[in-house]
Design a protein that fits this description.
alpha+beta, 6-stranded antiparallel beta sheet, 5-stranded mixed beta sheet, disordered N terminus, FHA_dom, FhaA_N_sf, SMAD_FHA_dom_sf, DUF3662 and FHA domain-containing protein
Length: 209
């Protein structure tokens, strides 16, 4: 598993335990409304000891993104349906001991924004309207790989769709194994520049009002 889930925790709560608890909460509150339609909650609040909360918060937004993706994938596998993409919040609760958590859920129509990210070696990078990836310090995302040009590749995001463009690099770029010059970038696309593989994803985040 990537990002936050690759971390090893010697004590207290681990991210995989949060995933298991979220899945259990979703299963517990699954409500069949028709033969092929099972509704499940989409808003989840995970309470935990402040010490565990501090450890989870230190992992940054990548943890929430991964939890959201894993829960979305699980709902798809189980053929569950939600009012809108899941929203997960982590909250400290002094009444809980270290290593324990409490999950509460509700069904609510939530407005979401779709945010593009690029995963490189398990690290998730947020993308802007135009993001340049390369070996040079002038790139927005700098990658230490001698097979990469100083400004190698750019990703353009218009708020709904992404496009990848090779910037005339020496060794070229590939998209899902095919040579890339300029092409639309679907969700879950695998890019490679030099020896570096990068996963492009679009993740759902609750809209802030």
């Amino acid at each position: 598993m990537n990002g936050a889930f690759a971390r090893t925790f010697r004590s207290g709560l681990a991210p995989v335990e949060i995933t298991a608890a979220l899945r259990k909460e979703m299963d517990t509150h699954a409500s069949p409304v028709a033969r092929d339609r099972v509704l499940v909650p989409n808003r989840f609040t995970v309470r935990m000891n402040p010490e565990d909360h501090a450890a989870m918060s230190a992992l940054g937004a990548g943890l929430i993104d991964e939890l959201t993706e894993l829960l979305t994938d699980y709902a798809t596998q189980q053929r569950y349906q939600m009012a809108s993409p899941p929203v997960i919040a982590l909250e400290p609760d002094p009444s809980l001991t270290v290593g324990l958590l409490d999950v509460r859920s509700a069904s609510e129509k939530v407005e979401v924004d779709w945010a593009p990210v690029l995963e490189i070696d398990g690290v998730r990078h947020a993308l802007g309207a135009r993001t340049v990836i390369g070996r040079g310090s002038e790139a927005d995302i700098t990658v230490d790989d001698t097979g990469i040009s100083r400004k190698h590749l750019e990703i353009v995001w218009d708020g709904r769709r992404a496009e990848a463009r090779d910037l005339g690099s020496t060794n070229g770029s590939t998209l899902n194994g095919a040579r890339l010059t300029r092409a639309a970038l679907p969700n879950e696309s695998m890019l490679q520049i030099g020896r570096t593989r990068m996963l492009f994803r679009v993740v759902a985040r609750a809209r802030e009002h």
